[in-house]
From TrEMBL, chain A:
<dbReference type="GO" id="GO:0019781">
    <property type="term" value="F:NEDD8 activating enzyme activity"/>
</dbReference>
<dbReference type="InterPro" id="IPR035985">
    <property type="entry name" value="Ubiquitin-activating_enz"/>
</dbReference>
<dbReference type="Pfam" id="PF00899">
    <property type="entry name" value="ThiF"/>
</dbReference>
<dbReference type="InterPro" id="IPR014929">
    <property type="entry name" value="E2-binding"/>
</dbReference>
<dbReference type="InterPro" id="IPR045886">
    <property type="entry name" value="ThiF/MoeB/HesA"/>
</dbReference>
<keyword id="KW-0833">Ubl conjugation pathway</keyword>
<feature type="domain" description="E2 binding">
    <location>
        <begin position="352"/>
        <end position="437"/>
    </location>
</feature>
<dbReference type="GO" id="GO:0005524">
    <property type="term" value="F:ATP binding"/>
</dbReference>
<keyword id="KW-0436">Ligase</keyword>
From TrEMBL, chain B:
<dbReference type="Pfam" id="PF00899">
    <property type="entry name" value="ThiF"/>
</dbReference>
<dbReference type="InterPro" id="IPR045886">
    <property type="entry name" value="ThiF/MoeB/HesA"/>
</dbReference>
<comment type="function">
    <text>Regulatory subunit of the dimeric UBA3-ULA1 E1 enzyme.</text>
</comment>
<dbReference type="InterPro" id="IPR030667">
    <property type="entry name" value="APP-BP1"/>
</dbReference>
<feature type="domain" description="THIF-type NAD/FAD binding fold">
    <location>
        <begin position="23"/>
        <end position="525"/>
    </location>
</feature>
<dbReference type="InterPro" id="IPR035985">
    <property type="entry name" value="Ubiquitin-activating_enz"/>
</dbReference>
<feature type="region of interest" description="Disordered">
    <location>
        <begin position="1"/>
        <end position="20"/>
    </location>
</feature>
<comment type="pathway">
    <text>Protein modification; protein neddylation.</text>
</comment>
<dbReference type="GO" id="GO:0019781">
    <property type="term" value="F:NEDD8 activating enzyme activity"/>
</dbReference>
Length: 440, 528
């Protein structure tokens, strides 16, 4: 207790100095790689303390992000997560205990870190990111994402890009995004409108190819085919419960049983409860160690951007770090180029290969599976007319007949630009330029 | 018949247990066998310096359920620990750091036990030991001795400022069978050396291929398609298979040409699959480099030779010599086919795989008649034979004899030479300067850039003339032995991944040093 006796609590400045000793050695003194023009050792601690940082997601990455930011000198942190704690989180989400199961992640995580790291304020928001508007997001200087859904990433990316006002310096909010799967992961830095954005990089997260319906319906071969059959076909036919809750063990058990019967019918081995759950919920394996790597890589960039005490990923060079730990350790840190035809941050329409003999329905459905689009509920407008609207109901009904017309019948031409909106990305209109397949 | 029985008595639906639910996301990576290995592991952390990187490592091992751990740490908690280490709180000020950290880490997973300040002599044998720099010389030599005596892997970590590295020392050759190859890795399906049952099956399906109706033709499994057209090819090529790249392209064109396009779909998915599979699967079996290393490995330790792995490896080697191919892995990729036909095909492969494994087992028993060879271990080996990997294969005559310093000197010379051409070859610059600068402070809390350079000059005399080494030395001096929490958390994550791989004997660990640069955000693995 010697140190406490010599420096009692009435000398807070002294304590803070000691408390931040490790951090200050680096952030208050320039190193050989520090850019002297943007660095100020005296101002850095104060500047970081007043910065507002937003963390999106309080799960595997989120818990790590909050801990890391709190120990990096930030004092005003907000966290958004709509989820509650599940027992399967406890193998890695280290801010949660058995007794927290069922409580909101954001709330429990915030309380825990505030208690452990003195002087840090963490404001939890138990809701969806879509529940806030641009005014809310405008208050932050930096946004860090630890999400498992590509859709949420695209939404916040589009929102932050849209918020950029060239005349207002404070409208540029750097976005630092992390993601993991098993022993692998990635960390990337996005400077909205300046560097490649999440939409530019969308094809790096191509959705897994869906099993054709006819395979499920008539020629299953794999245990996954039996499970998908139970999930997609049997459930709809029998409707055992009003709606499918993928977190309800009773519902999963029903699917498991159905899948098992089908597997026996075709002599297909390998259907288990765990596989059923994995396929239906699209479970991605996750461990503490990988979250630790990726979240820290993200926060290291946040720290460098906020303090300028060392060069950060982003402009003008590398902006993306890929990490793989399956076979030895391998990182690939590179520059992902911004795309001029990015529907979110580019100004050119993106080329879209289509067949003029397609019906509009086929075009609408194709948006979900195209790696470069991944839009599940698209509404489509041509330059001078509305082709199809998903909502409101009256407009949907009015435009529905178009679905069965071919693109040619609708008067669309090669090279024509169309605008596509999707409720998942309220503010954005994706621009595409039709490129007709040459008929042979 | 089975289906009737199954319908009458539905299977016992055992939902997941509490533990399976808690560990679900990791069991999908290393299964129950890996989990059992973790739960029986006993880890020692010898902590020093700022102490964060060791604790972050431990956190990532306690969470997935490591069996036991002990922390040895001479430090007493002070104010600065609170600002960098998450597992210390104010109530710990003035207490031994090991005690404070143990209490807060144990909250994470109350299922683990811990021994406080365990001493090497009184604790149960440690599975693996981690220590952090700066470390006292008498400690490291004590650990080296223990490692040698008990064959315990030793991990050293050093984290300072934006830099870190860690180094794994394995007590001997470390073979891994369950390497988890990428899903895209191809498995041998023996298209060029089919066994009679497979040939018969394919022949039966394709005997009247041109007169099959569109549905049947469009549901021939691609394995049967390729076997059929290979047969045809051999008839017109004096009995030999397509072997050169040019021939394979020509063969591919043959298969492509056999696709029906006058059907309602205007093409056939199964033929598309066949065409796509030609270059990857119409290949003569060869010995993969990982397994070759195993076959050619010379044992320095006679006990090592009598372990299950090496006996089975010997038996597989015999199999390979006799059959000119590896035991069949037994899995068939998914392919467009009627359910019944696909299942039949799958069973033909499985049956052959079981036969091959039985032959290997028999040979293994002949090699070591007084040992109980585990049939499941043989099966796993046969299934993964093409992906088996040997780490740290220095055995006996290897470079273990040359001193570490000599080896280091050679590697440094090579790396610095590569750097000269880095711009032309577009390769990233070597991170060895970081390793050198950190290593120079391995025994002291902090040092000036000049002191670091002087220390590095003992191994690399021209150190102070090298700009990159000078910069690294300055950067390390800047930290004064201080850790950045982010760098330590990141390094702790990497180390934990590696320790999990070593404990579970799954996936492939590094060989043997990993250096991280938090400024350019990348790492490099190098054998030192």
């Amino acid at each position: 207790m010697a140190s406490a006796d010599v420096h009692p609590a009435s000398e807070p400045a002294r304590c803070v100095f000691l408390f931040r000793r490790h951090l200050d050695r680096i952030r208050t003194r320039a190193g050989p790689f520090t850019d002297p023009d943007s660095f100020s050792g005296e101002a850095v601690a104060g500047a970081m303390e007043t910065m507002k940082i937003l963390v999106i997601g309080a799960g595997g990455l989120g818990c790590e992000l909050l801990k890391n930011l709190a120990l990096s000198g930030f004092k005003d942190i907000h966290v958004i997560d709509m989820d509650t704690i599940d027992i399967s989180n406890l193998n890695r989400q280290f801010l949660f205990r058995q007794s927290d199961v069922g409580s909101f992640k954001a709330e429990v995580a915030a309380k825990f870190v505030e208690k452990r790291v003195k002087g840090v304020k963490i404001t939890p928001h138990n809701c969806r990111i879509q529940d806030f508007d641009e005014d809310f997001y405008m208050q932050f200087q930096l946004v860090v994402c630890g999400l498992d859904s590509i859709e949420a990433r695209r939404w916040i990316n589009a929102t932050l890009v849209n918020m950029v006002n060239e005349d207002v310096e404070d409208s540029y909010k750097p976005l630092i995004d992390g993601g993991t799967e098993g022993f692998k992961g990635q960390a990337r830095v996005i400077l909205p409108t300046v560097t490649s954005c999440i939409e530019c990089q969308l094809d790096m997260h191509a959705p897994r190819a869906a099993v054709p319906l006819c395979t499920l319906a008539s020629i299953p071969r794999q245990p996954e085919h039996c499970i998908e059959w139970a999930h997609v076909i049997a459930w709809d036919q029998e409707k055992p419960f009003p709606s499918l809750d993928k977190d309800d063990p009773e519902h999963i058990t029903w699917l498991y049983q159905k899948a098992l019967l089908r597997a026996h019918e075709f002599n297909i081995p390998g259907v288990t409860y765990s596989l059923t759950q994995g396929v239906v919920k699209n479970i991605i394996p996750a461990i503490a160690a990988t979250n630790s790597v990726i979240a820290a890589a993200c926060c290291n960039e946040v720290f460098k951007i906020a303090s300028n005490c060392a060069p950060f990923l982003g402009y003008p060079d590398n902006n993306y770090m890929m990490y793989s730990g399956n076979d030895s350790i391998y990182t690939y840190t590179f520059k992902h180029e911004k795309k001029d035809d990015c529907p979110v941050c580019g100004n050119l329409a993106r080329k879209l290969d289509v067949d003029p003999t397609w019906t509009l329905r086929e075009l609408v459905e194709s948006f979900a599976v195209r790696p470069e689009a991944q839009l599940k509920k698209p509404s489509i407008r041509a330059q001078f007319k509305t082709l199809y609207m998903q909502s409101p109901a009256s407009l949907e009904e009015q435009t529905r007949p178009n679905l069965d017309k071919t693109l040619t019948e609708l008067g669309l031409t090669d090279g024509e630009e169309i605008g596509v909106t999707d409720p998942a990305f309220a503010t954005v209109s994706f621009k595409f330029k039709l490129k007709f397949k040459q008929s042979d | 018949m089975t289906e009737v029985v199954m319908r009458q008595t539905p299977p016992i639906l055992h939902g997941p247990s509490e533990k399976e639910r808690k560990y679900d996301r990791q069991l999908r990576l290393w299964a129950a066998s890996g989990q059992a290995a973790l739960e029986s592991a006993n880890i020692l952390l010898v902590n020093s310096g700022a102490g964060t990187v060791g604790i972050e490592t431990l956190k990532n091992l306690v969470l997935p359920g490591i069996g036991r751990f002990a922390i040895y740490d001479e430090a007493v908690v002070e104010e600065a620990d609170l600002g960098v280490n998450f597992f210390i709180d104010e109530s710990g000020l003035g207490k031994p750091r090991s005690q404070c950290v143990t209490e807060l880490i144990l909250e994470l997973n109350p299922e683990g036990e811990s021994t406080l300040e365990a001493l090497l002599a009184t604790s149960p044998i440690f599975t693996i030991i981690v220590f952090t720099y700066p470390a006292r010389a008498e400690h490291t030599s004590l650990l080296q001795e223990y490692s040698k005596q008990h064959k315990t892997p030793l991990v050293a970590i050093h984290s300072a400022g934006f830099y870190s590295y860690f180094q794994i020392q394995l007590p001997g050759a470390f073979p891994i069978v369950d390497t988890h190859p990428e899903e895209t890795a191809t498995t041998d399906i023996r298209l060029l050396t089919p066994w009679p049952e497979l040939s018969e099956f394919a022949k039966e399906l394709t005997k009247d291929i041109d007169n099959l109706d569109n549905h049947e033709h469009g549901h021939l499994p691609f394995v049967a398609i390729l076997l059929h057209y290979l047969e045809q090819w051999r008839e017109t090529h004096s009995g030999s298979n397509p072997s050169t790249y040019k021939e394979k392209i020509e063969f591919r064109r043959l298969v492509q040409g056999a696709t029906r396009t006058n059907n309602p779909e205007g093409g056939e998915e199964n033929f598309e699959e066949a065409v796509a599979a030609v270059l990857k699967t119409v290949t003569a079996p060869s010995l993969p480099s990982g397994l070759r290393e195993v076959f050619e490995y010379k044992h320095s330790d006679p006990n090592e030779q009598m372990s299950g792995f090496w006996i089975i490896a010997d038996a597989v080697k015999t199999f390979y010599a006799k059959h000119k191919c590896l035991p069949l892995p037994g899995s068939v990729p998914d392919m467009k086919a009627q359910s019944k036909v696909y299942i039949q095909l799958q069973n033909i492969y499985k049956k052959k795989a079981r036969q091959d494994a039985a032959e290997v087992l028999k040979t293994a028993q002949e090699i070591a008649p007084d040992r109980d060879i585990d049939a499941a271990e043989v099966e796993l080996f046969c299934k993964n034979a093409a992906f088996v990997k040997l780490i740290n294969a220095t055995g006996g005559t290897g470079d273990r004899d040359t001193s570490n310093t000599d080896r280091l000197k050679t590697v440094i010379a090579q790396e610095l030479e590569n750097d000269e051409n880095a711009e032309v070859t577009m390769t990233p610059l070597s991170l060895l300067p970081i390793y050198l600068a950190l290593q120079a402070t391995g025994r002291v809390a902090s040092a000036s850039a000049d002191e670091i350079l002087a220390e590095v000059a003992k191994t690399v005399p021209e150190a102070s003339q090298n700009e990159r080494i000078r910069n690294a030395a300055q950067e390390v001096a800047r930290a004064e032995g201080g850790e950045l929490h982010n760098i330590s958390a990141l390094t702790g994550g990497m180390v934990a991944q590696e320790m999990i791989k070593i404990i579970t004997k799954q996936y492939i660990p590094i060989d043997n040093t990993c250096i991280f640069d938090g400024i350019s955000s990348r790492c490099q693995v190098v054998r030192l």
